[in-house]
Amino acid sequence: MRRSMRNVMVAAGALLVAVLVMQAAAPARAQDSGTPDRRTITVNGVGTVSISPDTAYIRVGVDVVNAALSEALSSARTGMEAVMAALTGAGIAPEDIQTDQYTVFREDRFEPTTNTSANVFRVINIVRVTVRNVDQVADVLNAAVDAGANAINSVEFGVADVRPTESSARTLALDDARARAAELAAAVGGTLGEVLTIQETGGFVPFDQFARGMGGGGGAGPVSPGSLQVSVSLVVTFALQ
């Protein structure tokens, strides 16, 4: 009996020692594996750069209506051949002329003077023209109109290679984010630390649209390319010290 009680007491003592050892070691392990919370500031930064367009995109062609389908097709083909010849004569390379729309359909047209309606066929043939010198846009449009183009759907201005401008806008966006974060850090009595993360959330590379709709006759008139704005947006996280 005494030996049994002694064995129980020895076992209980060993268990108590093991528990104490585990409790002493647990905080040490947590301290070794854990990382202290780091204070951070996350802000949006936006950079915008203005740039002059160097390329124009014109959608121009013919819109023909005739009671006979064969006549409509023939008139559209003849008219478009003249327009394309005028475009190449104005200095546009053949590879910069691409068919953008070719539509043939029948429609009902009401004639108010006779109070009657009739079926006609309509053929629309539009090409997309890349003009690599924006100073030639008005001349190209006038040449197309003089050749018989009666549909100018749009004139858009863009930049052939926007990457250098995007790079400049990206640098400005980072500077903007840093200035915003520094202001917030000072407001809470801290200082700005290193950059922890950067995420580019979007950008805007526009095409400036000059005109949309139907046109023809009397020349195209003056065309002003203006300027475009390229924007980049960043989300940046800084350490707060």
Describe this protein's structure.
- By secondary structure, the protein is of the alpha+beta class.
- It has a domain of 104 residues: Alpha-Beta Plaits.
- The strands form two sheets. Strands 3-4-2-5-7 form a five-stranded antiparallel β-sheet.
- The protein starts with a helix and ends with a strand.
- About 16% of the residues have low confidence.
List its traits.
8 strands, Alpha-Beta Plaits, alpha+beta, single chain, 4 helices, 241 residues, five-stranded antiparallel β-sheet
CATH architecture of the domain at 55-158: 2-Layer Sandwich
* Name of the CATH class of the domain at 55-158: Alpha Beta
Gyration radius, to the nearest Å?
36 Å
Helical content band: 25-40%
Shape: elongated
SSE layout:
Blueprint: H1 2-33, E1 40-51, E2 55-66, H2 69-89, E3 97-111, E4 116-131, H3 137-146, E5 151-158, H4 163-187, E6 192-204, E7 208-212, E8 228-240
Antiparallel strand pairs: 1-8, 2-4, 2-5, 3-4, 5-7, 6-8
Helix pairs in contact: 2-3
